[in-house]
Amino acid sequence: MLPSSKIESRQPTTNSQPPPRALIGVLALQGDFDAHRKRLEELGAEVVLVRKPEQLDSIDGLVIPGGESSTFLKLLGEAGVEKLKEFVRLKPTFGTCAGAILLAQEIDNPKQAGLGAIDIGIRRNAYGRQIDSSIREGSFQGSPVEMVFIRAPKISRVGPGVEVLATEGEQPVVVRQGKVMAATFHPELSSDGRIHQAFLDLLRNGAGR
Fold first, then answer.
1. Could you give the CA distance from residue 96 to residue 67 in angstroms, rounded to a whole number?
2. Which domains does the chain have, with CATH numbers?
3. How far from 73 is each of 42, 79, 98, CA to CA, in Å?
4. Nearest 5 degrees, angle CA 81-CA 84-CA 39?
5. What are the b/e assignments for 16-39, b being 16+ CB within 10 Å?
6. Beta 23-27 vs 46-50: how paired, if at all?
7. pLDDT by residue (tens digit) across 113-172?
8. What is the C-alpha to C-alpha distance for residues 196 and 63, in angstroms, rounded to an integer?
9. What whole-number distance in Å separates Cα of residue 39 and Cα of residue 76?
10. pLDDT tens digits for range 25-34
11. DSSP 8-state assignment for residue 116
12. Which of 49, 102, 126, 197 has the largest CB neighbor count within 10 A?
């Protein structure tokens, strides 16, 4: 059981809205995809659960949730992985935990091929086993934020074109490069909507059909 958090909860804000007719897909093959859907809908986004590669053609942005990164690749299949690579190259994508692993350029512990969409190195299961899961306080754009870590990876390298949006201590935990965002924790499991809002802002400012 995760420890109770003493961090003040922040309700999701709705100050910024995604662009008109924007449709956010949440990859719904494994992980807590429904929590992502609910959070995005709380923030005013139109959301669809993505279970087939062809659905990528009709969405404006994509969230890849946690789970097991190697299982994602198996479930997608070769054709699905290629379709996903093309989508990530063109449109805003946000990966959390296992999703962040998939987006990374370098994956260790063990080594694994991914999508190579963001210039970071990442180490799987760096915070320990699931029993070692925890809620911690980090900093997002200068303000405290609750962070839920479950068998989380750690970012071991940040490329020169990558912006660090959030940290836990000295450790980068949310990064962005171009249209791609990655978080090593589970923002969908906290009461704070600012991380998801940052992705919607990225979508609003950077893409659309």
1. 9
2. 23-206 (3.40.50.880)
3. 29, 10, 11
4. 125
5. eebeeebbbbbbbbebbbebbbeb
6. parallel
7. 889 999 999 998 777 665 457 899 999 989 999 999 988 999 999 999 999 999 999 999
8. 10
9. 24
10. 999 998 889 9
11. -
12. 102
